[in-house]
Task: inverse folding
């Protein structure tokens, strides 16, 4: 936490696969888990959208 409002806050680094986790606190690990859960949800939503688009395109071309 910054002592003064004008001090820059320490930015957390993005998670890297295989990163050494021994230097992270329990709070930092919890934050990363939440960040990764949100990213997984975002990826799954995009995958579902692409799958729906592909299914719709296949159905369109099967009509002909």
Result:
């Amino acid at each position: 936490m910054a002592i003064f409002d004008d001090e820059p806050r320490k930015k957390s680094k993005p998670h890297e696969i295989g990163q050494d986790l021994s230097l992270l606190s329990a709070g930092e690990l919890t934050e990363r888990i939440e960040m990764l859960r949100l990213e997984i949800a975002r990826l799954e939503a995009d995958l579902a959208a692409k799958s729906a688009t592909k299914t719709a395109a296949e159905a369109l071309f099967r009509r002909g």
